Amino acid sequence: MKRFLIVLAALAALPAWAERNALPTGMPAAYQSECGSCHTPFPPGLLSAADWKATMAGLEDHFGTDASLDAKSAGAISAWLETNASRRIQAAGKPPRLTTTAWFKREHREVPTKAWQDSRVKSAANCAACHRGADQGRYGEREIDIPGIGRWED
Ligand code: HEC
Ligand code: HEC
Prior knowledge:
Layout (H helix, E strand, L loop, with lengths): L1 H12 L15 H10 L10 H9 L13 H13 L18 H6 L5 H5 L27 E2 L3 E2 L3
Antiparallel strand pairs: 1-2
Bound molecules: heme C (2 copies).
């Protein structure tokens, strides 16, 4: 039984955020230079296609800023986001936030409250504060380093 549980635990840990690049191939350069200029270039796989569509349709009034783009870049970004969107993650609110999904909350349930409140983090959307490879799409545990807490490896 114990051995079985160990195997199960290993399988559960496998799904490979460690090896996976969260910014899949085909990423338009404008995704990094535009969407990545104010915040982390978020992983397309953490929102549904409908929510990416809603996000891209509302860029003129985007969380208190104007993030609108030329039509060509916007079209390329939308297509890439929707192709690589999650088919499992459900609607993420209005406006959509990947940080409010059940997936995100479950994945981060062990992160202590004081980490979210640290002045170097400020917002859960500030992925790169803890995920040091986030700007390059890397979320593996080896690159998690939380301000005020330190490295996170179990
Ligand atoms: C001018 C600055 C700016 C640009 C450019 C920008 N954003 Fe944002 N975005 C913001 C701000 C501000 C927030 C809110 C951040 C927070 O709550 O900490 C945000 C939040 C988001 C969120 C929700 C994050 C969460 O909490 O889960 C998504 C999704 C998002 N942006 C997508 C995009 C996409 C896609 C692009 C490119 C087409 C883009 N953004 C370009 C400023 C910008
Ligand atoms: C306050 C620090 C912090 C912030 C901010 C944060 N995370 Fe995390 N994240 C963690 C920790 C710690 C874990 C590992 C949780 C565990 O193992 O129980 C994690 C796990 C993950 C994982 C799974 C990694 C794996 O190997 O299973 C992904 C993907 C992820 N986060 C994405 C994001 C994204 C995207 C953002 C921003 C929208 C974000 N995180 C913001 C601390 C943070």
